[in-house]
Every structure is written in structure tokens, then in C-alpha cells.
Amino acid sequence: MAVALGLFAAARLTGLAVLAATAWATGHHPLTLLGRSWDSRWYLGIAAHGYGHTLHIRPGVVYSDLAFFPLYPALVRAVTAVSPLGGGAAGLLVSWTAAAVAACGIYAIGVRLHGRAVGTALVLLWALLPHSVVLSMAYTEPVLTAFAAWSLYAVLTGRWLWAGTLAALAGLARPNGFAVAVAVLATAAYEIFRTLRRGGKVTHSLWTGAALAPLGWSAYVVWVGHRKGDLLGGYFAVQRGWGSSFDFGHGSLRFTRHLILQGDRLVFPMTLLIVAAAVLLYALFLLDRPPLPLAVHTAVLLLITLGGSGFFESKPRFLLPAFPLLLPLARALVRTARARPWHAVVVTGALAGLSFAYGAYLVVLADTPL
């Protein structure tokens, strides 16, 4: 794990160095860009002042901070309460720590399924995704991925109370955090069915873990609904105010048509390419007959990404917790490294160059919401 975590840290620190150089060359401060960009400002506002901030952009478009789940701002608030750090620095500390914890969880899953070499390659590939710069920002994806990875690991090892508790916390981190709960519930249902079919007795820990898994996400959605006067629909009304809804991919297809016919800035075709690659990787992932919790977790995240409307350029970020998609690539990279080491070095170097350059472009130059 130390080797995997060291490679992860080296990759992300090198990416930060490239980003910092780009920022200074263009008259920006890198820590400000990392700690106070786009959604980060909303989270820091919640951490400092609580919920209640709304922006009326135009008729039918209302940005409310109730769209943002509470775990990350709560962690930032806790750090600022016990340390001299300001909001932005506290947000970065939470994200960087969570990214390291997530990397350890991803490694543990890779090792359990395919051995230490694949676990290490899986972490390295996750660190070198084109959009992995988000892991170094004051964003919620590292927190969600940390809870998701360890919850899924707990399911794989039969630790149901841990699985349910961590899934509940994942559900408090982001809207798509419920993918973890769905994975836990689907696997628990399968285990219950298999146990009862054999005439066995289902353990209390399995029942309790399954019951805990959806509580975090459900509690926040119901709380927002109560606050908005519509218990079950209030949260989704808030999301529609941001232009986000699940429309079975209609909005994504419409924007894809625009890209093909008219073109747009680099970030949009890159988004289309990354999402298309994710679909292909999921097909390859299923061919390896993966464990049920990983297959379900990844499928739900992919479904949300493909079927959701709203900020098209944010779709790669939504896929960061879908790290099992990288398992086929990690296994291929390990095979290549054993047969032709220099080929693996060239491939890894190319991925690193793309990740560092594109990450700097996204944060410093693109001026596009992440």
C-alpha cells in the first residue's frame, strides 16, 4: 500500500506543480484556484454560514445551496473550528486527506481481486485520469470515493455493519452517493436470498448493514423536502432549478448533436470522449465477471452520468468514484509491464502528460464549470 500511495502522491503533486506553473504564468494564484473555484465556493459558504443562500439567475433558473449535500461542508467547518486554517485551506486539507484514504481503499480492492501489482496500477491509473485534477481541489469527489471504496471493500469481506455505515456517509457526501447504498442493498438482497434458499439464518449484521446503507442520502433528501414544503419532491425541485434532472439522456444526446454539428471548446469534446470511454470500459469490466457490488455501484454511477441533464462538462467528475472501470486497464498495464516494461513506461508517461496538461487547462484556462 505504501508504494501505491507513494505513486499516487507523486502523480498528484506533479500535476499540482504543472498547474501552479500555469497559474503563475497567467497571473493567477494556484491555491485560490484549487480552493475557491466553482462549487467550492458554495461548499465553503455552507461551511461558514449554513444553508440558505439562493441566486435567482433568470426565470426558471434558481441556484440554491440546498443542492449541495452536507458532509463535506461539515468536515470543513470542523477543521476550521479546531485549527487556524481558513475555509479554502481547510477544504483542500479535507479533500487531499480523503483522496489518500480513497487511494488506499482502491488499492485494497485491487489487491483482493487481482493481487498487489494490479492494486498499485489501479491507484496509479485513478491518479492519472484526464480529470483527476478534481482530486486536488476543494471538491467532494475525494470524500465520496473514500467512503465508497471502503464500503465496497467491507461488502467484499463480509463486514456488513461497516459497509452500511460507510454507505450512509457516502450518501451524505454527494447526490450520486446513493450508488454505494444501491450496491450494498443489491448485494445484501442476493446474500439474503442465497442464505434463505439454503435454509440458513440471515445474520443481524447483514440486516442492519442493509438498513443503514440508504439512510444518509434519504435523510438529506427528506430534510430538504421538509424545508421546501414538499417532502419527497423538494430536493428534486432544487436540482431542477440548477438545470439538473434525470431525463434518460435526452439532454446529453442533444448536446452531443451540437458538438458533432457545430463543435465547441476543447472541454466539451473531451467530456464526450471520456464518457464514451467509460461506457466501453464498463463493457470490458463486465466481461471479467466482477463482484456484484462493484458492478452495481459502477452501473448506477454510469447511469446517472449518461441519463442526467445539466452541466455536460461535469460528467467526467461524476465518474471519478467509478474507479472499478479502470480494472481492465490496470490488468492490461500489469501484463504489459511484465512482458515489455518500456512499453508500460511509455503508456504511463503519455497518460501522465495528458492528465497534467489537461488538468491545468481545466482549472486555469478553460473558464468552464467543473
UniProtKB/TrEMBL annotation:
InterPro entries reported for this sequence: PIG-V/Gpi18
Localization (cell): Endoplasmic reticulum membrane
Pathway assignment: Glycolipid biosynthesis; glycosylphosphatidylinositol-anchor biosynthesis
Keyword Ribosomal protein: no
Keyword terms, alphabetized: Endoplasmic reticulum, Glycosyltransferase, GPI-anchor biosynthesis, Membrane, Signal, Transferase, Transmembrane, Transmembrane helix
Signal peptide residue numbers: 1-20
Main localization of the protein described in the UniProt heading: endoplasmic reticulum
Statement: the UniProt record of this protein carries the keyword Transferase: yes
Transmembrane segments: 89-109, 121-140, 160-193, 205-223, 266-287, 294-312, 318-334, 341-364
Membrane topology classification: Multi-pass membrane protein
Name of the protein in its database record: Glycosyltransferase RgtA/B/C/D-like domain-containing protein
Organism: Streptomyces justiciae
